[in-house]
Amino acid sequence: MPDADKRVTWFDRNPGKAKLIMAVIVVLVLEIFARVLVVAGLIPYQPYPTSRYPEFIDHMDREVGRWHYPNADVDVYDTCKTGRFVSNGVGAMDIERATDANDAFRVAVVGDSFAAGYYVSFGERFTGLLEERTGIEHLNFAVSGTGTVHQSQVYRYKASEFEHDAVIVAVLPVNDFENNRADAKPGKKYQPTVREVDGELEIYYPVRYEDRYIKERSFGERLKNRIDNTLYLMNALRLGSRVFKGWRRGEQLEDFAEQAPNYYDNYDENDWRLMEFALREIVAVAGDKPVVVVTLPYAKDIDYARTQGYNFRLVRQLSEFAAANKTVYYLDLLPGFAAAMADDQRDYQSYVWACDMHWNPDGHDVAAELMYQGLAETLYSGE
To answer: pTM to 2 decimals?
Structure first.
């Protein structure tokens, strides 16, 4: 028979409610612990956006498609880095610039996220470093996720509105050829691509501006972000998820790098036709201004040059393109990067973020020095 002395507690009579209370207590303890870690600076706290529309970049510009929202200032966090994405009044990832140069020599720069300087501040990216060293303004009109076709439109409709005396086109062979292709813009992405009409190439947009896709945060996503902003425990768990995904992304980047022996040869004749067409568009808009095409190497390209020799098809074709156009100059950063790596006794990965392929401040510093040396006679002889 039951022990008459055993006392039946409220917890015995209400096991479900008891478990719920214990769960709440555990969550409260973990929440306090997470807040302590954040205050102590041991883990980051990221406020997630709760607005209906993104604040930084989308297919939002009628003239160029994918572009930054003007006057954006967004904190970004990733597994191995933090930073801010800041745009000026016209939507460029740059400081405010006057349209009038006031007789000063200025350089306009177009490219993708490498040139835009993702995850580094203005003073750390190569355009800011060149500006500091030369005293010459380098107006940065680079935008992520674009190839030279898109960049030709950015130059025509954005950069050309600002007085300048020279142009730098930063070409990233890793993905610029892919981003030029029409099939890289499926669905309702309002981005420029190229088609052939009566044997001639022309730029067009696959969808009407009115039918373009604009990313919109769902109510559920906005609600989740509000919860994650309020509860530090949820914020910390989201950090853990980012760490795991960043680790997986690092593996995927390694797999991506294995897809081709190098990226300076990883394109076909139609890819070259599109890039050459886009470069001609930039040259035509630039008029008599010097246009400098700069290729940015990736680890595979440098490794290939070391083992197989420096004999890339892209280098030959861009050199021939420059020779055939009196205002065009070509500079490849690959030999200089390889030399810097040898001098510093470092591998390429030490110049990029550990969980990302973009240059870290050290990578931008090397690129700035190589451009300063390589363009000393072309652009900076009169500094």
So the answer is: 0.83
My answer on whether 196 and 99 are in the same domain is yes
Residues 35, 61 within the same domain? no
From CA 305, how far away is CA 312, in angstroms rounded? 8
Return d(Cα 80, Cα 356) in angstroms, integer: 9
Burial of 292 (0-12, 13-18, 19+ CB in 10 A): buried
In a domain, 271, yes or no: yes
Structural domain harbouring 187? 57-216+254-374
Distances (CA, A) of 228 to 44, 77, 158, 330, 370: 13, 14, 37, 48, 44
For 144, other C-beta atoms within 10 Å of its C-beta total 19
Pair 228, 50: CB distance under 8 Å: no
Tell me how crowded residue 153 is: count the other CB atoms within 10 A of its CB: 25
22/161 same-domain check? no
Please tell me whether residues 30 and 118 are part of one structural domain. Answer: no
Total number of domains in the chain: 2
If you search the block for the tokens 């022990």, which residue do you land on? 3
Classify burial at 268, counting beta carbons within 10 Å of its beta carbon; exposed 0-12, middle 13-18, buried 19 or more. Answer: exposed
pLDDT tens string, the chain, 383 residues long: the values are 455 556 778 777 788 888 888 888 998 999 899 899 888 888 878 787 787 767 688 888 999 999 999 998 887 766 666 778 899 999 999 999 999 999 999 999 999 999 999 889 999 999 999 999 999 999 999 999 999 999 999 999 999 999 999 999 999 999 999 999 876 555 678 889 899 999 899 999 988 899 888 777 788 888 998 998 898 888 888 877 876 766 565 554 455 445 678 999 999 999 999 999 999 999 999 999 999 999 999 999 999 999 999 999 999 999 999 999 999 999 999 999 999 999 999 999 999 988 778 999 999 999 999 999 999 988 987 65
Residue 144's nearest CA partner among 112, 190, 192 is 112
Query: 15 and 142 share a domain?
Result: no
